[in-house]
Design goal:
Chain lengths: 227, 509
C-alpha cells in the first residue's frame, strides 16, 4: 500500500513514515498543504493521511480541491481540534475517515488499511462473506459454520458482518462502535469487548479453529487460521 | 465663567494627561449636563421673552385704549361747550385747562393754522390737516423744540374752519416700555447666570462621581479585584449604576473563584495520573530485568496515557459545552432510537455486572440536538448506574432506562437501586472531578455527571438527581422538538444499517 502523509510536524511525520514502513507499507511525506496537494495530484497513492491544520493550504481545503478534480483517493483526516462537529466538517469536505489527535498508531493503521482495501474492493458488495467454513449470507441473514447454522441477534449479525467484510484486517473497537452502532463517543468502558466475546461464544465455541482473534493493543480480526 | 487658557490649546481634553483638575473644564463642554443646561437656557430665555413680550404688548394696548377713551371723553365735553358757547367759550375753556398740569394736550387754531389757545407749542408739520386719530411728535414749549415728545392726538374740524386738537402725552406708556425692556434684560441675565451656575454645579457633582467611578474601575482593572464603586446613598441613577456594576464585579469574582477551583482540580486530577505514569516508567527503567517486564510496563504506561487523554477530552468537551457554541451541529433526532440503542449496547455489560437493564421507551420521541452529545450524556449515566448501581440489600438488581413525554418536555430517566447519593451531595456531584468517597475505589474521574449536566444545559434542558428509594434516579428533561408534519425518511431504521466502511454520522447533522 502506498501512503502519503501530509503533516507539518516533522517529528510526528517521521514517526508515522517509520511506523507505516515497519508495517510493510510505502509512505511518503509532504510537509505542507501545497506540497501535499501537488504530490497527491501526481497520483499513485492508495490512501492520504492529512493533518487538519497545515501551513499554506489547510487539510480540508486540500481534500476539497482533490475532490473537485474528481480525485477519489481515500483520505483520512488527523485533527487536534476536538470540536463536537469537527468530524462532520471533515467528512463534508470529502474526507473518508477522521481521527482525533492523540491517537494510537494501531488505530490509524487499522483505519488506513480498511480505507485502502475499500478502494481495491469491487463496486458492489458481495451478498455472501466466506471465511474458511464460516459463511454469512447477507440477503438471507443467515450464518453457518460448516454444516451447522449459528443463530445470531440482529446486532450480533451486523457485528460479524463488519468483521467478515474486513476479514484479514485489524478492526479496532472504535471502528466497531462507529460502524456497527453509529456512535462517535467514548463509551467509558469496554462495551465492545463484551459484545465480541458474546459473538465469539456463538461463532467459535466448539470449533477447533477460532475465527475471531483478538489483536493485542489494537482490536479484533476475523481470519481463517487453517490455511 | 472664565475659561483656562488650555481650553484653546489644541489637543486639550482627550489626549491630555488624565488629571482631573486639568481636564475638568474642557470636559465640561462635552458633558451631558452642560448640553442639557444649554438647551434649557435657550428654552427658558425664549419663554421669558415671550411672556414679557406678551405682557408689554397687552399693557401698551391697554394704555392706548385708556388714552383714547380719555381723549374721546374730553372731545365730547369740549364739543358740548362749543355747541353751548361757540368758539369763544371753547377757547376760554381750553386756555383754562391748558394751564393745569397733566398729560392732556389741547390746541385750537384758526382755519389758517394760527394758534388761538392750547398747550402745544410746536407740532409735526401737517398734523392738523388730517382729521381723526394719529400718533405724532410735538413740543409743549419753545425751549423743548429739540426734544419732541410723542402723543396720541385727535383732530376735530369745528364749524367755520377752526380746528381742535385734543391729545395725550405718551411718556407714561414709553416709561412702561422701558421698565418692561429692562425687566426682560434682567430676567434674561438672571436666567443665563442661574443656568450657567446650575450647569456648572450639576456637571461638577455628576462628573466628579463619574470620575471617581472611573478611577475605581481603573484600580480594579489594574488588579485590585476587591475594589467596589462607592454608593452615595441617594438612590439616584448613578447609585443604581454603581450597585449594578458592583453586583457584576461580585459575579465576576465568583466566576473567577470557580475557575480557580476548577483549574486547581484539573491540576490535581491530571497531575495524579501523570505522576503515576512517570513513576511507572521510572520504576520499570530501574527494576525491570527482562524485555518482557519492560514491555509490560510500557503497556501499562500507554493505558495510563490513554486514560489521561480521555480525561482531557472530557474536560475539553465540558468546557466547550459551557461556552454553548455547537449550534451548527444541532439537528432533529429520534431520541427513542438513541436510548434503545444505548441500552442494547450496555446490556451485555450489565449482565456481566449482575444487573439487568429494563427499558421503557416511548417510540418516536423527537428532540433537537446533537446525537453524539446526548448519546455521550446518556452513556455516562448508564455507565455510572452499572458501576455504582448494584444493590447492597435485597433490592431488585435492575437499572431502569426510560424515555417519555412529560408535558411539553421529554423526560429521560436512568434509575438504579444501588446505594444512591445522599441528598446533600446531589448538587455537588454535578461539578467537575467530584467523586464521593464510596466511589473512589471504582475507576473513573468524576467527570461523567458534569458532562451530562453540560449537555443537558446546552440543549436547554434540566438535570435532576432524585432518590429512587433505594438508589439514584437521574432525570434529564429536554425540550421536545416542534412536531413537523413531514416524516423524515429513513430515520425509522437503525442507523447502523446504513453504516458501511464509510464512516456514518452524516445523517446526524
Amino acid at each position: 500500500m502506498r501512503l502519503l502523509i501530509v503533516e507539518d510536524d516533522a517529528e510526528a511525520a517521521a514517526y508515522l513514515v517509520k511506523a507505516f514502513r515497519e508495517a510493510g507499507h510505502v509512505a511518503d511525506h509532504a510537509a505542507d498543504g501545497l506540497q501535499g496537494y501537488a504530490m497527491a495530484e501526481g497520483g499513485g497513492y492508495d490512501v492520504l493521511v492529512v493533518d487538519r491544520m497545515l501551513p499554506r493550504l489547510d487539510g480540508l481545503s486540500l481534500i476539497r480541491s482533490l475532490r473537485e478534480q474528481n480525485d477519489a483517493t481515500p483520505a483520512l483526516i488527523l485533527s487536534a481540534l476536538a470540536q463536537v462537529d469537527d468530524r462532520v466538517k471533515g467528512l463534508r469536505a470529502g474526507g473518508d475517515d477522521y481521527l482525533p489527535k492523540p491517537y494510537a498508531f494501531s488505530e490509524l493503521l487499522a483505519r488506513v488499511e480498511v480505507l485502502s482495501r475499500r478502494r481495491a474492493a469491487p463496486a458492489s458488495e458481495p451478498t455472501t462473506y466466506r471465511v474458511g467454513d464460516l459463511v454469512l449470507d447477507r440477503l438471507a441473514h443467515r450464518v453457518t459454520r460448516g454444516d451447522s447454522e449459528i443463530p445470531l441477534q440482529p446486532r450480533e449479525f451486523r457485528l460479524l458482518e463488519y468483521l467478515m467484510k474486513h476479514a484479514g484486517q485489524v478492526v479496532t473497537r472504535t471502528m466497531l462502535l462507529e460502524n456497527v452502532w453509529d456512535y462517535h463517543f467514548d463509551p467509558q468502558t469496554n462495551v465492545i469487548d463484551v459484545h465480541v466475546s458474546r459473538l465469539r461464544s456463538k461463532v467459535d465455541k466448539g470449533f477447533e479453529h477460532p475465527m475471531i482473534h483478538t489483536i493485542r493493543g489494537a482490536g479484533y480480526m476475523v481470519r481463517d487460521t487453517t490455511r | 465663567m472664565t475659561r483656562p487658557a488650555d481650553i484653546v490649546s489644541p489637543g486639550s481634553g482627550a489626549s491630555q494627561a488624565p488629571k482631573r483638575k486639568q481636564r475638568f473644564l474642557p470636559n465640561l463642554f462635552r458633558t451631558t449636563a452642560f448640553k442639557l443646561t444649554a438647551i434649557y437656557l435657550v428654552i427658558f430665555a425664549l419663554f421669558a421673552g415671550f411672556v414679557l413680550g406678551y405682557v408689554a404688548w397687552n399693557a401698551k394696548r391697554l394704555l392706548d385704549d385708556q388714552i383714547r377713551s380719555t381723549i374721546d371723553a374730553e372731545i365730547q365735553g369740549l364739543a358740548e361747550q362749543q355747541r353751548l358757547g361757540g368758539i369763544r367759550r371753547l377757547v376760554n375753556i381750553i386756555e383754562r385747562r391748558s394751564r393745569g398740569p397733566g398729560a392732556s394736550l389741547y390746541l385750537v387754531t384758526t382755519p389758517v393754522g394760527e394758534r388761538l389757545a392750547g398747550n402745544v407749542e410746536a407740532l409735526q408739520p401737517g398734523a392738523l390737516d388730517r382729521p381723526g386719530e394719529s400718533e405724532i411728535e410735538y413740543s409743549r414749549s419753545s425751549d423743548a423744540l429739540d426734544t419732541p415728545s410723542r402723543a396720541i392726538v385727535r383732530v376735530f374740524m369745528l364749524p367755520g374752519g377752526f380746528r381742535l386738537l385734543v391729545g395725550r402725552d405718551l411718556e407714561e406708556r414709553d416709561r412702561l416700555g422701558v421698565v418692561i425692556r429692562r425687566a426682560a434684560g434682567w430676567s434674561l441675565l438672571l436666567v443665563f447666570v442661574l443656568g450657567c451656575f446650575a450647569s456648572w454645579f450639576v456637571a461638577r457633582r455628576v462628573l466628579k462621581r463619574i470620575d471617581d467611578m472611573t478611577d475605581t474601575a481603573q484600580t480594579i482593572m489594574a488588579g485590585d479585584l476587591k475594589g467596589r464603586l462607592a454608593i452615595s446613598g441617594t438612590g439616584d441613577e448613578l447609585d443604581r449604576l454603581a450597585l449594578n456594576l458592583n453586583a457584576m464585579l461580585d459575579r465576576i469574582g465568583e466566576l473567577m473563584a470557580g475557575m480557580q477551583e476548577v483549574s486547581d482540580n484539573i491540576a490535581h486530577d491530571l497531575k495524579t495520573p501523570l505522576t503515576r505514569l512517570r513513576n511507572r516508567a521510572e520504576e520499570a527503567l530501574r527494576t525491570a530485568q527482562s524485555p518482557d517486564e519492560l514491555r509490560g510496563a510500557l503497556d501499562a504506561s500507554i493505558d495510563e496515557a490513554d486514560n489521561l487523554i480521555r480525561v482531557f477530552n472530557a474536560l475539553l468537551m465540558i468546557a466547550r459545552l459551557e461556552t454553548g457554541r455547537i449550534n451548527d451541529s444541532m439537528a432533529e433526532l429520534d431520541l427513542s432510537e438513541v436510548v434503545s440503542g444505548l441500552a442494547e449496547l450496555y446490556e451485555p455489560l450489565a449482565e456481566e455486572a449482575g444487573l439487568e437493564i429494563v427499558t421503557e421507551v416511548t417510540p418516536n420521541l423527537r428532540v433537537s440536538g446533537n446525537r453524539e452529545l446526548i448519546g455521550q450524556a446518556l452513556a455516562n449515566l448508564i455507565d455510572n448506574a452499572l458501576k455504582y448501581g448494584k444493590p447492597t440489600g435485597d433490592a431488585v438488581p435492575v437499572v431502569r432506562v426510560a424515555a417519555g413525554v412529560v408535558g411539553e418536555q421529554i423526560e429521560l430517566t436512568v434509575a438504579d437501586h444501588g446505594p444512591g447519593i445522599p441528598e446533600a451531595d446531589r448538587g455537588r456531584v454535578l461539578e467537575r472531578f467530584v467523586r464521593l468517597d464510596q466511589s473512589r475505589s471504582k475507576p473513573g474521574f468524576g467527570l461523567g455527571l458534569s458532562l451530562a449536566a453540560g449537555v443537558v444545559r446546552l440543549h436547554g434542558g434540566l438535570i435532576r438527581l432524585e432518590d429512587n428509594a433505594p438508589g439514584l434516579r437521574v432525570v434529564m428533561l429536554l425540550p421536545e422538538a416542534p412536531r413537523k408534519p413531514v416524516e423524515t425518511a429513513g430515520e425509522g431504521a437503525l442507523p447502523a444499517s446504513t453504516a458501511q466502511a464509510n464512516p456514518a454520522g452524516l445523517q446526524s447533522v
